[in-house]
Write a structure and sequence with these properties.
The complex is a heterodimer of chains A (about 170) and B (about 775). With about 170 residues, chain A is of the alpha+beta class. Chain A contains 5 helices and 5 strands; from the N terminus they run E-E-H-E-E-E-H-H-H-H. A 5-stranded mixed beta sheet of chain A has the order 2-1-5-3-4, covered by helices on one side. In chain A, strand 1 and strand 2 form a beta hairpin. In chain A, helix 2 packs across helix 5 and helix 3 packs parallel to helix 5. The C terminus of chain A is likely disordered. Chain B has about 775 residues and is of the alpha+beta class. Among the domains of chain B are: about 170 residues, 2-Layer Sandwich (Aldehyde Oxidoreductase, domain 4); about 250 residues, Aldehyde Oxidoreductase, domain 4. In chain B, helix 8 packs parallel to helix 17 and helix 13 packs parallel to helix 14. The N terminus of chain B is likely disordered. The chains are: A alpha+beta (about 170), B alpha+beta (about 775). The interface between A and B is large, with 60 and 68 residues. Chain A: GO terms for molecular function: 2 iron, 2 sulfur cluster binding; metal ion binding; oxidoreductase activity. Chain A: It holds the Pfam family Fer2_2. Chain A: Keywords: 2Fe-2S, Iron, Iron-sulfur, Metal-binding, Oxidoreductase.
């Protein structure tokens, strides 16, 4: 028989978020940051937490098309914004090209930083089509990886920059 | 047979096969501990000690919420963690999962609070009042080791030393040797896998057992330890290590948090979750690499190494962690300091000092990173003294190809390799002479320096290496459960765990090499004590050799069974059957059968089997042990060029080259990945990563903003060269090589910096080589002028 437990009251607020093209109604404490709401309330666990301080980049998501940390601000502040997590890029041709390049270049080992890396990589490819290796490395400054030594990640992004969007639009 | 079968030839050992595990991680479908949900799950937050050494006078739980807060007094039936070594003189510690009577390091857990969310559990933790009576803090390992510290970690001990060891192989050396002596040190670090530790556990009433999901490198060891501390039989504990976001030694431990959460899950009969945050990770668990050496090397005028004398101290922290113990690292220094060199004389005295800091854990390379730093830095200092290049000195003393197999001065049996050729290839890959020319042109504010470091990495240590330590675990036979499903899929269960090492791919490549089966048809299941054979798990660069050996042994045995069935079904002599493309084919290629056909017959058409068929069928357990089991010795030389700014103290890596020999590579892409990741961590050790502690043993770098992990821009241009000298002692000639990348960088980079500063009389003796340490070295040189 589970013990009956009572807990100190908590104050929750109800708000709406637009996540991966869907409208979500969330009830959470106002202090809950976006990553926790995505993971704990929306069941979207691709977004990982590495430091909850804005340094490691594992929690990077797209807000109105721009990469942003999801660990630094209360989720309530994202009302009315377009939030996209890695789960949104399942059928995205650029996402597919990046996934293939990441695998071919061994750009992941444990896979924990990978979702944040892919969001940042997607942004680099779209925003900086002329980026050279040094620029890619500089752009990756906000995403830490402890396994790969970064070479595979940099090469994967370079590979997609060289071939995208020249390849077929279905990403194959 | 219609159509050509798919070519599986390029998927076995040696192929750069893309990883089977990638797809789930790339789509965000990896399942890490924090991703797991259970109905009714509660979160835990711990009250952790804010002081390093104090008596607990009183713990006051928040009024009205006492039932949500637990202390060690509530867990009276739980036993402390004891990881004793049987080496003579070892003083053992008892670590209660929640502190009992006193706290011994900042971050030690004092109370556990439970609530429906972590944030609400932390609210409760903030309301727990603990009355501490300060005790004198032991923050300096030298004071602890030398008996000059005022404080005492463990009241019943004679001193603040877990263990003292002495290796004495001293022999006479020539009078006219050049002897150099220095005090060198490495700083306290944390491994910092990107995912921290974490636990989700509950009691399963159907199976009457604890279900423990934990980010663990060695789930079977955790299971044993949990059963011991909780007073359960092992059948009542299942440990599952799901996807794990990096380990590097950080997760090779029985956690006090696991014991607390398990106890609470049983107490409340609710699923319990604890997910470590980065502050807990860095402040309560800064747990590795802090070594101090007083070392002398003696070199003949010819450049030949005559001997080493060393006195080493390792800051082992407050407790002995399970299973590796507090003494493994320091005692290992005594046995591995000679590295890959021949010498006449050797002595080494070591002490594992107990201080008010987090308990020591092995970090990638374990003591090797420290000893490589100590010895290789000294060899370059000696070479400068003799006026010869560092590789000239080393080539006179490295173990040579004709010496193999070679037993060194501490009785290590080297299996194979050409260390001298390897070193020269690294030197050439860097373009050493080209950099020397450039160096001669620059002697202003920014100075160029060159350095190299050579080491050997013993991997897959066996029973004969470990039983002598007398610690809670001794690696023995590694095993694999293998079975074929009704439709011909090969299922392999291993007791080790892969958390980035790519074993789902490389073990399938091993199966392909033995059975010809497509790796896509092979499922590797690991990290679950529920079905896999016992294993000491993933540590010490052991699984390419040990799990690889076990998978090969299981596949060989299975091949035998399949061959006998196929022989009957195909009417072909068993020894005339060849495995290829996921089936068997007769020597004259006239008849073939797929594994699926054979499996279908075994499971679903047994009427076709002969009466004398082996009833054990298509499932089995096979085991593997290396013979001799000293381990494999991979090795490498790292060479680099740096630029040192003598005004700011900044060090820039200009170029880097590695030549390594890991024997037969299961998957060269994976090996390079291990090398690159290790290199990044080694560069962190060399230049950036340090958690300083003040005199009160307060950690001073408790966030990733203070503890600097290398980013993409910090990695240098790199050339990698492979040599592949097979080990005569492993199944395919493969060697363990997972840690090597992290071993040599501090030594190679320090040597390069000292080369750059040599003309100014300055020398670096400690890593990381922060700008402050460079400036201090330059100022010291200036003052001594």
């Amino acid at each position: 028989m589970s013990a009956h437990l009572e807990f100190p009251e908590s104050h929750t607020v109800t708000f709406r978020l637009h996540v991966n093209g869907e409208e979500r109604e969330v009830s959470a404490e106002p202090r809950t940051h976006l990553a926790d709401v995505l993971r704990e309330h929306c069941g979207l666990t691709a977004t990982h937490l590495g430091c909850e301080q804005g340094v490691c980049g594992a929690c990077t998501v797209e807000i109105d098309g721009v990469p942003q940390r999801s660990c630094l601000q209360s989720a309530t502040r994202f009302e009315g914004r377009e939030i996209r997590t890695l789960e949104a890029f399942e059928n995205d041709p650029l996402g597919a090209a990046l996934r293939r390049a990441f695998s071919e270049e061994h750009a992941l080992q444990c896979g924990y930083c990978t979702p944040g890396m892919l969001i940042t990589a997607r942004d680099i490819v779209q925003r900086l089509p002329q980026a050279d290796e040094a620029r890619i490395r500089e752009e990756l400054a906000g995403n830490l990886c402890r396994c790969t030594g970064y070479r595979g990640i940099v090469r994967a992004i370079q590979r997609v920059l060289e071939t995208y969007p020249h390849e077929s639009s279905d990403g194959r | 047979m219609t159509g050509a079968p798919p070519d599986t030839q390029a998927k076995g050992i040696g192929a750069r096969l893309a990883r089977k595990e990638d797809a789930r991680f790339l789509s965000g479908r990896g399942e890490f501990v924090a991703d797991i949900r259970r109905p009714g799950m509660l979160d835990v937050a711990f009250v952790r000690a804010p002081v390093a050494h104090a008596r607990i006078v009183d713990i006051e739980k928040p009024e009205g919420w006492e039932s949500l807060v637990y202390t060690m007094a509530d867990m009276a039936e739980v036993k402390p963690i004891v990881a004793a070594s049987k080496l003579p003189g070892f003083q053992k510690s008892e670590q209660y999962p929640l502190a009992k009577d006193k706290v011994r390091f900042v971050g030690e857990m004092v109370a556990m609070c439970v609530a429906p969310s972590r944030a609400r559990a932390e609210d409760l933790a903030e309301q727990v009042f603990v009355d501490y009576e300060d005790l004198p803090v032991v923050s300096d390992m030298h004071a602890a080791a030398n008996g000059t510290a005022e404080g005492k970690l463990h009241e019943h001990w004679d001193s603040n030393v877990f263990l003292e060891t002495q290796v004495d192989n001293k022999a006479g050396i020539a009078d006219d040797v050049v002897s150099v002596r220095r005090q060198l040190s490495t700083s306290r670090q944390c491994q910092v896998p990107l995912e921290g530790r974490g636990v989700v556990c509950w009691w399963d009433h159907r199976l009457n057992r604890l279900e423990m999901t934990s980010a663990a490198q060695m789930p079977h060891i955790n299971r044993t330890g949990l059963a011991e501390c909780l007073g359960l039989d092992e059948g009542q504990v299942r440990v599952v290590s799901p996807d794990v976001g990096g380990g590097f030694g950080y997760k090779g431990i029985l956690l006090p948090e696991e014991i607390c959460c398990a106890w609470l899950a049983m107490k409340l009969d609710r699923p319990i979750r604890w997910i470590e945050d980065r502050n807990e990770h860095l402040s309560a668990n800064a747990n590795c690499r802090e070594h101090a050496y007083d070392i002398s090397v003696h070199v003949e005028r010819s450049g030949r190494l005559a001997g080493i004398d060393c006195d080493a101290i390792v800051d082992s922290g407050a407790y002995s962690s399970y299973p590796f113990s507090a003494c493994l690292e320091a005692a290992q220094i005594g046995s591995i300091l000679p590295g890959p060199y021949k010498m006449d004389s050797y002595s080494c005295h070591t002490r594992s000092a107990a201080t008010n800091k987090p308990p020591i854990l092995p970090y990638r390379g374990v003591a090797r990173t420290g000893v490589c730093f100590a010895l290789e830095v000294m060899l370059d200092i000696a070479a400068r003294e003799l006026g010869i290049e560092p590789f000239e000195l080393r080539e006179r003393s490295l173990v040579g190809p004709d010496d193999m197999p070679y037993t060194n001065i501490t009785n290590k049996l080297f299996d194979s390799g050409d260390y001298i050729a390897c070193m020269h290839r690294a030197v050439e890959a860097l373009d050493w002479s080209g950099w020397r020319a450039r160096q001669a042109e620059t002697n202003g504010r920014k100075r160029i320096g060159l350095g190299l470091a050579t080491f050997c990495e013993q991997g897959a240590h066996g029973t004969s290496v470990y039983h002598g330590w007398g610690i809670p675990m001794v690696p023995g036979y590694e095993q694999c459960n293998a079975r074929v499903t009704t439709d011909g899929i090969l299922e392999l269960q291993i007791g080790a765990h892969s958390h980035g090492q790519s074993m789902e791919t490389t073990m399938a490549q091993v199966a392909n090499t033995v059975l010809g089966i497509d790796p896509e048809q092979v499922r590797i299941m690991h990290g679950d004590t529920g079905g896999s054979p016992y294993s000491t798990g993933t540590w010490g660069s052991r699984n390419a050799v040990m799990s690889g050996g076990a998978v090969a042994a299981a596949c060989e045995k299975l091949a035998d069974r399949v061959r006998r069935l196929a022989s009957h079904l195909m009417d072909v002599a068993a020894d005339d059957l060849i495995f290829e493309n996921g089936g068997v084919v007769s020597g004259d290629r006239s008849r073939s059968m797929t594994l699926a056909d054979i499996a279908h017959t075994w499971y679903r058409a047994p009427q076709l089997l002969p009466d004398d068929v082996d009833p054990a069928g298509l499932g089995l357990v096979a085991g593997y042990k290396m013979r001799p089991d000293m381990g494999t010795f991979s090795y490498a030389t790292h060479a680099c060029a740096v630029e040192v700014d003598t005004v700011t103290g900044a060090v820039k890596l200009l170029d880097y080259a590695i030549c390594e020999d890991g024997g037969v590579l299961l998957n060269p892409m994976v090996v390079e990945g291990q090398l690159l990741g290790g290199l990044a961590q080694g560069i962190g050790t060399a230049l950036y990563e340090e958690i300083p502690f003040d005199d009160e043993a307060q950690p001073l770098a408790s966030t990733l903003a203070d503890y600097m992990v290398p980013g993409a821009a910090e990695m240098p241009h790199l050339t990698i060269e492979h040599m592949e000298t097979p080990s005569p002692f492993s199944t395919f000639g493969q060697k363990g090589i997972g840690e090597g990348g992290a071993i040599a960088p501090p030594a190679a980079i320090t040597n390069a910096v000292n080369d750059a500063l040599g003309g100014l009389g300055a020398e670096i003796h400690s890593v990381p080589i922060s700008p402050e340490r460079v400036i201090a070295a330059l100022e010291a040189a200036h003052e001594s002028d």
